Amino acid sequence: MTGSLDGLRKVLALERERRFSDSAVVGGLDAFLLNFAREAGISTSHPVSRVMQSLPPGGYRALHPIQRERVVNELLRVAGNGAPHLTVVEITADEEEPEAPRKAVTTTQAAQRKTPPPKAVGNLDSPVSVFPLAKARGNLPKLERAGIRTVRDLLFHFPKRYHDYSEVRPIAGLTYGDEQTVIAHVQSVKQVALGRRRAAEAIIGDETGTIRVLWFGQPWVAQRLRSGMKVALSGKIGAFRNRMQMENPEIESLDDESIFTRRFVPVYRSTEGLAQVTIRNLVKAAIDSFADRVLETLPEAVLDFNDLMEAPVAIRKIHSPDSLEEADAARRRLAFEELLWIELGVVRRRREWQDSGGAPVLDLSPEALEGYVESLPFALTASQRRAIDEVLADMGDSTPMTRLLEGDVGSGKTVVAAAALLATVASGKQGAIMAPTEILAEQHLRTFTSILNPGDAAPAEDGPWFQESGEGFIVMRPPYMSEPVRVALLTGSLKASAKAAVQEAIARGEVDIAVGTHALLQESVSFKALGVAVIDEQHRFGVEQRSALREKGGSPHVLVMTATPIPRTLALTVYGDLDITVLREMPPGRPPVKTFFVPPRRREEAFRFARTKVDERRQAYIICPLVEESEAIEAKAAVQEYERLKHEEFPDLRLGLLHGRMSSGEKEATMRAFRDHELDILVSTSVVEVGVDVPNATVILIEGADRFGLSQLHQFRGRVRRSEEQGYCFLLSETQSEDAMERLMIMETMESGFDLAEEDLRIRGPGEYFGTRQSGLPDLKVASLTDVEMIEETRREATRILDEDPELEAPEHITLRANVNRIWDRVTPDVS
Ligand code: ADP
Ligand code: MG
Q: SS3 sequence, 574-587?
């Protein structure tokens, strides 16, 4: 039964009945599908195969039930639910390759071919206008819009894919599925309405038959075609009422010589009005005149060892391959080179940092460490304990630490940071901890106050904030330390005089721990003896901020902390200069947040629920929708929402408002009021996102939840998982999009921030996920940051090259060095 579509459908139906638990067949659906494909002998282009290919590496099993549901539905659809007569055999019947009419055409066209144009003069940096075609018909601005200004740009404008013109088929030889190409005459063409969609429809024919061609949603195509015209069309073959039809094919101009003279014809990214034939001819001209001038940047040893093509060959072959394998090999060479630049930069940075040596050896005596651990109001998790050991081991060595501490929201990173800072103080050096916002910097100060002053957990009435007390810093006396610990807060909103006082104290070494924001990075701040720098919520800081902090006095140890999980590929690239420690566990006794997707009709319930919690003396957050356009518009929307809630929804409760346009003083005042329970509900834009700790808040309502990424939603949710009290998160959304609803429902059941991040990354890709600017990620032309294997290969190669030639000074490394510097200089990380 495994080989029949009927059997497949039964299994899928059962799987659906069993609510996508992967229990319909023994051994799981993945194994069943493979077996089915083998026994039915379906081709890789069969729709069932396509669905199988679309599964992630872990297969069906690795999917969330909501995703599984879609896969099962899709399979049922393509397995022809209710169309049992469409058998597998029929679909792939045509195994024989019909004689393509290509050869005949080639000879006639070849006879017409003109003599090649004379070579253009110029060099790789010449403008594209050295080619007459680039100037014709207003092409220049169009090329410019496609990012093509110079000859080099043309050579490096790589195809996104290829048409296979060896495969030109007679109409009778077309088979269901895969993309195929025909050359035929248009017999009729018109615009049609298919249901509510408009489309262009043509009937085309050759000696062997006719076929219907449809361009869904592109009625204007009808204007490009006339009956009697000869066209080359490449597209997928679908079926309607069991008759084949070609769907949304690309139309190739028969003026384009390349489709008759080459087997694989490149398809380029283009812009409005710039024809493929134009790009192809320009690229061809660029290759003929200039490909040989592309410099080889890789040393011969690297080429040989990794079996890579030479640069000029790769440039030719990627545009004009003789086989798809050749195209792949060319692409591999170009991708390898890009990743090698990245890895050389990363490995070099790591070495420079480590070789700078001379980091202070910092040590916390076992007694002091135990005293610290004992004094905490809770027992450390095993993860925290291990993290502290790793950090202290790093700091006990003169090679400067560069460690990334990665842990879900609320996993307790701060106590690890505090241990690092204590070790520093115990060794007579200074420590700094930098947070992305003033609220968080103050919160750290508060945490340290309670951690280091055991028994005096709650700070004084209005908190020990320096600017209020008028003092430069506060002194704490942990019993396990031989000396008092002097802590100072340095943020941008300090009064100039207070700021100066704190800066001077830091410079004189009278501050042991400086807590602050970017203000700590300013030139006017210099430490007497900086031992360790801790950077919290690292994804808000770029590489350069890291180095700036490092430069504040000798070579301190650096500990970076983040709640954003780092996938392996990024750990090897963007974060490739860091060692990584992960806090896998959460402190015990914190129930996962109950999360609900709330469609508009259930809104009222969510608000009522929030009210009952407030009646129980709890607090709530209401997060306003993300407005990407500008902070000003976002703030305005938040103010409106706040007014509405205050007057209509909760007139009897105490509401506060927080948005990005408020001065930091106003923000702090509101946060403080919320923390001290002078407010019941905090209405906020996404500024509340990172790290804020108000354990009494147990409900969070997120409006327009579909606009946020999964990781960000998880960050929000972390706000109400700060105690043993059950937290609740309501994801309000009016979205009609199935994808968006699916994402929100994933939030209901997926608890781990790491899983959500992987999911997010899968859905949005690394660029979107981290934001290229934020991540310090260079733009890659060819390489993909998801190719772990190649990343690892180039990492090894980079290590080998730098072992041999640390400064890349050898003559064969000069161009390599220039490229590494170019790509790393261009990267200017963003500070948000
Ligand atoms: P994050 O990793 O998000 O920065 P924090 O360091 O702010 O998390 O810790 C979150 C809360 O959990 C704090 O209130 C902290 O005191 C508490 N906490 C940390 N470690 C533990 C633990 N092992 N057991 C119980 N509570 C803990
Ligand atoms: Mg934190």
A: CCCCCEEEEECCCC
